Amino acid sequence: MAVQTENQTSSVDVGDRVKGDSNGVQLKIIQAIDEEGGTTDAKYPHYLPVWDHADQLPPLEPYTHHDPGKNADPSLKDLLLPGVTFKKLTPTTGTEITGLQLSSLTNPAKDQLALLAAQRKVLVLRNQDFADIPIDQAIAFGGYFGRHHIHPTAGVPEGYPEIHIVHQKQSNNRDFMTFLAGKNSTVLWHSDVTYEEQPPGMTILYALELPEVGGDTGFANTVEAYRRLSPALRERLHGLRGVHDGISQAEPYYRAGRLVRRRPLSVEHPLVRTHPVTGEKALFVNALVTTSIVGMKKEESDMLLGFLVNHIGCCLEHQVRVRWEPGTVVIWDNRVTAHTAIVDWNTYERRHLARLTPQAERPFETPYIPEN
Fold first, then answer.
1. 169-173, 244-248, 354-358 — most confident range
2. From the centroid of its chain, how far is CA 368?
3. 190 is a catalytic site residue
4. Does domain 15-356 correspond to CATH entry 2.40.50.140?
5. Residue, of 343 and 105, whose pLDDT is higher
6. Catalytic residue among 149, 167, 318, 355
7. Which of 48, 89, 102, 114 has its CA 20 to 30 Å from the CA of residue 32?
8. Mean pLDDT, the chain, as a whole number?
9. What is the mean predicted confidence (pLDDT) over 307-315?
10. Which of 266, 257, 260, 258 is nearest to 286 (CA)?
11. What is the pLDDT of residues 314-340, one digit of tens each?
């Protein structure tokens, strides 16, 4: 069995084929449908991941991102319609919304949704039809918020590389226990694909098939994590830059002869970034790929990064845990949150979700402002 975070995709019920590229290199083509029988009991088989060989994608070109939240009416009048309810999940983080159908939103309502996501960090929408609308329609919705990111290694629905698939199904309990034997916890706090020059902003994850119990997702508000630091440490962090290493992230795929669609990069981003709509400052470190701090010795860098990652992951005061239900869509602002999958079910049930990951601006920071 292979189990992953929300940023890595793998599966157990796979069939492998081999195919050569134009240079004669043998590459695995992996499908999440067992090819021996050619059948699956998945509820949404057209969303099952395929790791198919394709021509190497060119490097991502810079693009100018205009955040829709900047256009939004702050009264949220196109969201706060009759029959729509907002419920805060914690004082600072997360809002659950009922009575609103994402697929029917007007453009002004989408702008307001982006603003609300920036303000509340995580939005949980119940009873959505997102899993059942045409995939093209879901992609068009996500594209309103930015250029779609195509993941360099993840499985995607066949023909739709814009959609990142999270798919887990235990083949048997023995495999599950073998996986857990090497770990005390499956929790791994991260933000998505921060090794890109322009990481995602508003991110949309929707449920397809779920265990009856388990498989929740945790979210951490990294604006609040920044605010809870002492003024002295906040000031010291400004001006520091972290290395986000996409090369190491892709290396296991190269070693295994697996698909890597685009040549990986390592980039530098500020440890404290500023949100372009709210002006809030947030910690921007990623336990998966932030490997060092520019200008620091290894021991110093490891110590500071370790503290920041633990601070984000350990403070319940700035976290929320989302329980998935059929028809749930979770939207979060990847610039000001971290998240983790929680792999805690040991049944044979499938956990199958789809993610849209529009890119945002290149991370930037604004000068430190002392407290009054």
1. 354-358
2. 28
3. yes
4. no
5. 105
6. 355
7. 102
8. 88
9. 96
10. 266
11. 999 999 999 999 999 999 999 999 999
Does the annotation count 311 as an active-site position? no
Per-residue pLDDT tens over the stretch 77-94: 999 999 999 999 999 999
Evaluate if residue 3 carries a pLDDT over 80. no
- Residue in 120, 234, 261, 339 annotated catalytic: 339
CB 3 within 8 A of CB 186: yes
Report which secondary-structure segment, H or E, holds 16: strand 15-20
Exposed, middle or buried: residue 362 (CB in 10 Å: 0-12, 13-18, 19+)?
Answer: middle
User: DSSP 3-state assignment of 200?
Assistant: strand
Domain ranges for the chain: 15-356
The token pair that represents 339 in the structure block: 């998240």
Distance, CA of 262 to CA of 60 (rounded, Å)? 9
Contacts of 224 (CB under 8 A, 6+ apart): 92, 93, 315, 317, 318
**Catalytic site includes residue 269:** no
Dump the DSSP string for 168-195.
EE-S-HHHHHHHHHT-S-----B-TTTT
To the query of whether residue 148 is one of the catalytic residues in this protein, the response is: no
As given in the structure block, the two tokens for residue 347 are: 């049944």
**pLDDT at residue 184, rounded to an integer:** 82
Residue percentage of the chain with pLDDT more than 70: 85
Q: Tokens 């002004």, residue? A: 108
Among residues 192, 241, 311, 318, the one annotated as catalytic is 192
Residues in the chain: 372
CB proximity list for 133: less than 8 A, separation 6 or greater = 103
- What are 146's strand-pairing partners? none
- The residue-averaged pLDDT of 202-210 equals 97
Give me 363's structure tokens: 């991370």
Residue tagged active-site, from 53, 190, 269, 275: 190
Higher local confidence (pLDDT), 296 or 11: 296
Kindly compute the dihedral angle of the four CA atoms of residues 43, 47, 51, 52, in this order, to the nearest 10 degrees: 120
